[in-house]
Design brief:
This protein is an all-alpha fold. It is 71% helix and 0% strand.
Length: 482
């Protein structure tokens, strides 16, 4: 990695050539794989040292890259914190770049920075995204001493809905079940917007498994009322998933009833809630077996393609090895719905059994020239299997990908497999100036994914449990990067 990839990544940034997309992708790759030497490069780019060129997107990527570095000591952490705060405090910089900087500081999980983040959170800003980013960053530090600050923000009337939503998100990330009573109040309250309610319910899904029995009982009653009120697809859906994460007998009973008798969107979320209860080991063995059996029935009976796809995915989430034959049959069925076939492939990847029958099926799906959705899901499944035997075929498919979306899927799959033999071919793509800058940027992302020693990748900590539908664009883009 050091011998082959670093020089190629540095060369792109040092040259001053290439689009902002390319240079931003390279900056992120350096952050995900680098050590203290990379800090000099990132600082040169963001603070505009002579000879270093950085456009808007590159500077945003650099700000985020500070928080992704896996190999740093205490001295480096202090330096990173100083850089991130310097970027955030610069009113001349775009709000998006400043938001990345504090998110990076939160991802670095440096509790020594909590006081600085809280001090800035107490100030007012013209752009709501700045305060929202600070709320998220405070939560990402994991420092429960800051709980009261976020609770005050959630309770404060007149505060922008996005800021209150990210304060709820931050409370979920802090992981202190003492915040559960307030979040329950938000989830059931009339003076909170839907965005904030969604965020509160997602946060409850994190906290309730660690809450008291009394709080869990109250939460099931409240979440049940929310489901029955039908407050909108995502509010209801997140409530169903939260019930699954809680996993009490009453919660499971409601999920089974909803999966059987709810409307289409409710059934899909209820199935995911049931799968979540098993995947997170929230239920005893006997009930687990009953849920797994129910999911098999739901998958067989589902008529709607989207609902059936979710049911197949759920069978993968619970690692139902008895589902393999049925999933193989669905994935092989040419002429049937491509979404359903693709999710059958993905479920096989989640089950995690890299036997010749499964890998052979996924390899064949990658060559289906008429079905890009199937190819993309098959690539993702091979990545989930982390089978190094898939490296050669994924690299071959990388050259044949017919769209940037498909290329991105293959790159992510290579990153999941983590085979360092792929770095050489990815470096050659990165260095090939005849290719588009987007293709070269995706190659850089692949290098970063393979070289990142953290598992799961640090950015996953931000994206996991991110409440769907938040409207802070500078933060939403993180989802695309991940």
């Amino acid at each position: 990695m050091e011998r082959l990839a670093y020089p190629a990544l540095r060369a792109v940034l040092r040259s001053g050539r290439g689009s902002d997309d390319l240079r931003g992708g390279v900056a992120l790759a350096l952050g995900k794989t680098g050590d203290f030497e990379v800090l000099d490069i990132l600082e040169a780019l963001t603070f505009k040292r002579p000879g270093w060129k950085a456009g808007r997107l590159t500077r945003e990527s650099v700000a985020l890259a500070f928080g992704l570095m896996p190999r740093v000591d205490d001295e480096d952490r202090a330096r990173i914190a100083k850089n991130c705060l310097r970027i955030f405090d610069d009113d001349e910089r775009p709000a998006r770049e400043r938001a990345w900087a504090v998110i990076a500081l939160g991802l670095a999980a440096d509790v020594k920075s909590t006081e600085a983040l809280v001090a800035r959170f107490d100030k007012s800003y013209r752009k709501p995204v700045l305060k929202a980013a600070l709320a998220a960053a405070i939560g990402l530090t994991g420092d429960i001493r800051a709980r009261a600050v976020l609770e005050d923000a959630v309770s404060k009337r007149g505060l922008h809905d996005t800021i209150r939503a990210f304060a709820c998100y931050g409370l979920g990330k802090l992981g202190d079940p003492a915040a559960a009573p307030l979040l329950l109040q938000v989830a059931n309250g009339r003076r909170f917007g839907r965005v904030t309610k969604r965020a509160a319910i997602v946060a409850l899904g994190n906290l309730l498994p660690h809450a008291s029995t009394e709080q869990q009982t109250e939460a099931v009653k409240l979440l049940t009322r929310i489901v029955r009120r039908k407050e909108g697809v995502f509010v209801t859906g997140h409530a169903l998933v939260a019930l699954g994460r809680l996993g009490t007998s009453d919660a499971i009973d409601l999920l089974v009833k909803t999966a059987k008798g709810g409307n289409a969107s409710q059934r899909r979320f209820a199935v995911l809630g049931l799968a979540s209860s098993v995947a997170r080991d929230r239920v005893p063995g006997e009930i687990r077996n009953e849920i797994v059996a129910e999911l098999a029935v739901f998958a067989r009976r589902a008529k709607n393609a989207e609902t059936r796809s979710v049911c197949l995915l759920a069978r993968g989430m619970v690692r139902d090895k008895d589902a393999a034959d049925a999933l193989h049959a669905v994935a092989r069925k040419k002429g049937s719905n491509s979404m359903v076939r693709g999710f059958a492939c993905l479920a096989l990847g989640l089950i995690g059994k890299a036997d010749p029958k499964t890998t052979g099926l996924l390899h064949a799906a990658l060559t289906d020239t008429n079905n890009p959705e199937l190819r993309e899901r098959a690539a993702a499944a091979l990545g989930l299997l982390r089978d190094s035997r898939a490296t050669a075929i994924l690299l071959e498919h990388l050259d044949k990908a017919k769209s940037y979306a498909e290329t991105a899927r293959v790159v992510r799959a290579l990153g999941r497999v983590g085979d360092h033999r792929a770095i050489g071919p990815l470096v050659r793509i990165l260095a090939d100036k005849s290719r588009s800058d987007v293709a070269r940027a995706l190659a850089a992302v692949g290098i970063g994914l393979i070289g990142d020693p953290t598992d799961p990748p640090r950015l996953h900590h931000f994206v996991r449990d991110y409440p769907i539908g938040l409207t802070a664009p500078a933060l939403d883009e993180l989802l695309a990067i991940h």
